[in-house]
Amino acid sequence: MRVGPMELVIILVIALIIFGPGKLPEVGRAIGKGMRDFKEALSGGGAATASSQPSSGSGDQAGSSDQAS
């Protein structure tokens, strides 16, 4: 089962309708982070993720969400 370009466009349009243009980047970022964490967990890189996450990362996200609202 392959997903072609037309199917991707349909999925993106549905996601845009459901989440709206303001939330779509945030949703994409969360999905990408989840996929990345999942791949690292499968490859045994769980210890590397804890040391590679910056402690100031959550502060930057909170500041950017204040600007969006």
Order of helices and strands: HHH
Number of strands: 0
Strand content: under 5%
Radius of gyration: 16 Å
Task: Give the overall pLDDT as a whole number.
Answer: 76
The general outline is flat
Helix content: over 70%
For the biggest sheet, the summary is: none
Q: Count up the helices.
A: 3
What low-confidence regions span 5 or more consecutive residues with pLDDT below 50?
none
**Overall SS class:** mainly alpha
Task: Describe this entry's structure for a reader.
The chain is an all-alpha fold. It is 83% helix and 0% strand. The chain has 3 helices and no strands. The protein has helices spanning 5-42, 46-52, 57-68. The protein is flat. The model has no long low-confidence stretch (mean pLDDT 76).
